[in-house]
Design a protein that fits this description.
Elements lengths: L2 H29 L1 H8 L12 H7 L9 H15 L12 H4 L3 H7 L8 H6 L10 H10 L7 H11 L4 H16 L7 H35 L1
Helix pairs in contact: 1-2, 1-4, 1-6, 1-11, 2-4, 4-11, 8-9, 8-11, 9-10, 9-11
Length: about 220
């Protein structure tokens, strides 16, 4: 197996694990109000803050084995952001009770590919996106019908986010997510988690993708 093929396989496994993690957090928030409150309390907190202590019981079994603090912080931040959504965001999922419990283990055994990307993943450099970037989400928030988000506000937000250090991106994301929640744009939690995990090493590449996605979507709307 070549190095590129090995890296592609690793990214696929990571993507499956991220999907299982975010699905589990959404299921937990939907079915356990106490867990949701504990996760929400960790918003903008680091791993050692007293308010995050109840999160350790909920999240530690779901973290990648042997992960470092930066990777753990990415998972804690996304879990808190998901939990901070309004209660109505967690729609009933009658089939999810049985399925979600096995998602984490299933993710370790299979790595789903995105349509049309098997060959490209083996040759393209850098991290492969698993879904819609947060830049795309902000762009969709601007272009959504009847949206309350102005282009200027969204552009200021995306420029602020893409200039941030690792600590800064964790601190500024909650306000940006709150902005998006005023619109019909949906957030790809799996992709956001992937980007936060890679931020310490690939912040320039991720920032560029966020900006490009944002301007591609908003430019298209201007032409309509």
């Amino acid at each position: 197996m070549t190095f590129q093929a090995s890296e592609a396989s690793k990214r696929q496994r990571n993507g499956a694990t991220y999907a299982a993690f975010t699905a589990h957090i959404e299921h937990l928030c939907r079915t356990d109000p106490g867990a949701r409150a504990a996760l929400r309390a960790g918003l903008r907190r680091d791993l050692d803050h007293p308010r995050t202590r109840p999160m350790h019981r909920l999240l530690t079994p779901r973290l990648p084995e042997g992960c470092d603090d930066k990777t753990a912080q990415a998972h804690y931040t996304v879990a808190s952001l998901i939990a901070a959504q309004p209660r109505h965001a967690f729609s009933p999922d009658p089939e999810g009770d049985e399925d979600t419990a096995d998602e984490h283990e299933a993710a370790k055994k299979q790595a789903p590919r995105e349509e049309g990307e098997p060959d490209e993943r083996g040759t393209s450099p850098g991290p492969t996106p698993y879904g819609s970037s947060f830049g795309a989400t902000l762009g969709q928030a601007v272009t959504a019908k009847g949206t309350s988000m102005r282009m200027g506000a969204a552009e200021s937000r995306i420029n602020l986010l893409t200039r941030q250090s690792l600590r800064g991106i964790h601190l500024h994301l909650p306000a940006a997510v709150n902005q998006v929640r005023t619109t019909d744009a949906s957030i790809d939690w799996e992709q956001l988690l992937a980007d936060l995990v890679d931020w310490p090493y690939q912040s320039g590449r991720i920032s560029r993708r966020w900006l490009q996605d944002f301007y591609r979507i908003t430019a298209g709307a201007d032409q309509d």
